[in-house]
Amino acid sequence: MTQKTAIYPGSFDPVTNGHLDIIDRGSKIFDRLIVTVLENPRKNAVFSTKERLDMLKLILEDYTNVEVDYYQGLLVDYAEQKKAQVIIKGLRAISDFEYEFQMAMINHKLNPSVETMFMMTNSKFSYLSSSIVKEVASYGGCIQGLVPDSLYDLILSKFQADIKCDTIL
Amino acid sequence: MTQKTAIYPGSFDPVTNGHLDIIDRGSKIFDRLIVTVLENPRKNAVFSTKERLDMLKLILEDYTNVEVDYYQGLLVDYAEQKKAQVIIKGLRAISDFEYEFQMAMINHKLNPSVETMFMMTNSKFSYLSSSIVKEVASYGGCIQGLVPDSLYDLILSKFQADIKCDTIL
Amino acid sequence: MTQKTAIYPGSFDPVTNGHLDIIDRGSKIFDRLIVTVLENPRKNAVFSTKERLDMLKLILEDYTNVEVDYYQGLLVDYAEQKKAQVIIKGLRAISDFEYEFQMAMINHKLNPSVETMFMMTNSKFSYLSSSIVKEVASYGGCIQGLVPDSLYDLILSKFQADIKCDTIL
Amino acid sequence: MTQKTAIYPGSFDPVTNGHLDIIDRGSKIFDRLIVTVLENPRKNAVFSTKERLDMLKLILEDYTNVEVDYYQGLLVDYAEQKKAQVIIKGLRAISDFEYEFQMAMINHKLNPSVETMFMMTNSKFSYLSSSIVKEVASYGGCIQGLVPDSLYDLILSKFQADIKCDTIL
Amino acid sequence: MTQKTAIYPGSFDPVTNGHLDIIDRGSKIFDRLIVTVLENPRKNAVFSTKERLDMLKLILEDYTNVEVDYYQGLLVDYAEQKKAQVIIKGLRAISDFEYEFQMAMINHKLNPSVETMFMMTNSKFSYLSSSIVKEVASYGGCIQGLVPDSLYDLILSKFQADIKCDTIL
Amino acid sequence: MTQKTAIYPGSFDPVTNGHLDIIDRGSKIFDRLIVTVLENPRKNAVFSTKERLDMLKLILEDYTNVEVDYYQGLLVDYAEQKKAQVIIKGLRAISDFEYEFQMAMINHKLNPSVETMFMMTNSKFSYLSSSIVKEVASYGGCIQGLVPDSLYDLILSKFQADIKCDTIL
């Protein structure tokens, strides 16, 4: 048996409970799971790379086979450098399915030795995305239940909005 | 490191090159891969369970970490019995995507300790299914390139059709 | 204000928690909600019309503005006869979306005074359908959480399968 | 300039206004258009092959470059025999898009010299299919506007239902 | 019977015949319908909020149970403030279906007492959107039939393009 | 027989093997095929209009019935001016299908005498787009196999990236 390493790449701007769900489940399947913040110079992130790494480290400190990293460049090059066999992507039933497939195909063409495997997002998070979290937070909506509790204050601090959580969702 | 076992279930009525592609790639990711013919008493298969098992054994004899099996019942029960952590499904870009997602969700509900992971079918097989093979063969069309070469005669023998392959596809 | 009447048609073969969720929410929007078992002579139902009506009556007895009925024929004719302005359909994110749209369009053409309105199925039921319930039950899988608790025994009795619910889902 | 021949295959069980729209538009693009009733021994048609041919001949008699034919077998074989370069398919926005794509791909593999080209169904017919016509007619609903006027009586005669057209749709 | 209030939110940049169709049909189902211009500070609208309100008021002056309003913030907060039970969204067969579902789910999570109900856009407007209107108008194409006649001049005046309508569409 | 002229419009920023495949197949169906670079003042192209025209001329010089042109404005106006009966669009199984349909419908409304016909992209190019080529090239990934060989150096020269092609894909 060789060690199986998987990469879970993403923007994580910010981390959501949907991300955490995929990481938790993926960590049980692969011997080693690297959660990688992809830096995209063409996208304006709300959270800095350091902030996103800090969020991930905070919520993943109890996972002994999960590492946190960041990268800028072609994902397949990164996978090869990390000796990873697999790239994990979460698919929401409500999802950018086609885009993910297109990326998986081009990555397969660029490096056939790295496989992309898709995990289905838990149905209770099927509406959830980093964009939605930012949209809700920007209008002062309650984001409890959308993001890990321990990141709650950190994320809200970016939005200078009054917190409004009448009920625990 | 614990041994990672995956199941690749299907009807395999008959086996296609699309199936073989998923098996080949899946066998490199998991320590042990069980290819399982699902018997569905409500579907009339063209090939008997024994024929389908024979087809799989023939094309998979060189894969040392791949086993061939059959099952009738709930897939998650079978997975638990085999101590498998993962069910692999191939998704064609052109595909029964929603059906597979629905099955993955209900399986997750029935047994959350078994994960379904999706692999993307190679784009050159995106049009390919067992049904298409049977449709083409029933009209005497050429099925070379659609199924493993070694199964060619066996599959055609079911259809009493004149073979017609002007060109190697 | 005129009284607003809506019809929620379906096969209900059997009733699921997804159906109940739509009925519950729909009953709050319309003054009167008629839940109608559509009899389709071309489909073989597992449960008789009477059984399906009994199931609905059992779980809906506390809803004062909800009636239970059955019909065979064109839905728009039935709606007109009942003086209903609206037909309610539940859409699962994972869904026969296109089919429902096609039916809504033809119904609109046949009778433009009856509107079809779609409600989104609760995401936690997005995988759920009567077919899935029957599939799981036929293999002796646990259907708790999929159907209303009070219908549990009635539904299982159709399948002569050993009940298997290790955990409350 | 070589003569361009296209085939428009279908079940035409029965012919609808959506079919007629595609034929009308296709006949303006290609020098010769062959409308071909595909006989599928595995599908039970409501109308006989002769009835379907008669319907097509009736509504197409004024189209000088349109022929009516029938075929049983592989479509690409038929296309080659007819020296047709193109197969035309209508796509409804609400449609079996994926199925049509799969068929186009397999046909391309079986005979790369025959192209499948898709025309978009007129949006006012996007809900329309032969199945819908049969469904409506079987319940005595009005099918005016769904099928060519000249076929109205012929189609209704199959269904022994009372005609019910309060308004011209 | 309690009064049923629905909100129909949108950018209305500009109002199209598709919007008007939904408003007209929605006004027959709910006792009170509020058409609300959503101001999104992150999107550059071509028409000012005032212009959009004026357009809506102009075409809706004969609807006695329809009001026109605007809002900036979380839609569910607005619905609660207006004591509305329902948010209406139009779905085009050709549509941002998934996005609308995602928004409905998050709104349901933020405030479960507000329901989102979807109405199917009339098939003859299935291609129509405010973006298409702006695209066509910017190149001097004819927008008759795409927008209410009474708004024709107002909308064109934004585009300094020569009007070109050979035929009434 | 009248001459049949088709237009194949696109951004071609840059030309890919997917484009070339559609042009090659389209040129066999129509008597005259005009490949037209659409200039969109609202999109920032990486390659200038002249560069895109030069790329197309270079790879199409052996096609005797194919012309290369550019246009800014409404596509249907251009088609009329060129006396073209048909607009060709390539659909990837993985594709902006809905967008293309919407454009075809509005074009049909603006000028019903111009038809849009869709050809299916070869499955081996289903992941391919100009955007993907630019994404890969910007990170120094190998674009051989994605674009015509003769354009390889020209395209890479835009990206100042080290060429990295270990293997011929």
Which percent band covers the strand fraction of chain A?
15-25%
Write the H/E string of chain A, N to C.
EHEHEHEHEHH
Give the number of domains of chain A: 1
The total of helices of chain A stands at: 6
User: How many beta-strand segments of chain A?
Assistant: 5
Round the Cα radius of gyration of chain A to an integer and report it. 16 Å
Going by CATH, what is the homologous superfamily of chain A? HUPs
Global outline of chain A:
globular
Q: In terms of per-residue confidence, which ranges of chain A show pLDDT below 50 for 5 or more consecutive residues?
A: none
Mean pLDDT of chain A: 90
Quaternary: homohexamer
| CATH class descriptor of chain A | Alpha Beta
Q: From the coordinates shown, what is the CATH architecture of chain A?
A: 3-Layer(aba) Sandwich
**Order of the strands making up the biggest sheet of chain A:** 3-2-1-4-5
Q: What pair of chains forms the biggest interface?
A: A-B, 26 and 26 residues
CATH fold-level assignment of chain A: Rossmann fold
Helicity range of chain A: 25-40%
Main sheet properties of chain A: 5 strands, parallel
Determine the structural class of chain A based on helices, strands and strand pairing: alpha/beta
Report the span from N to C terminus of chain A: 44 Å
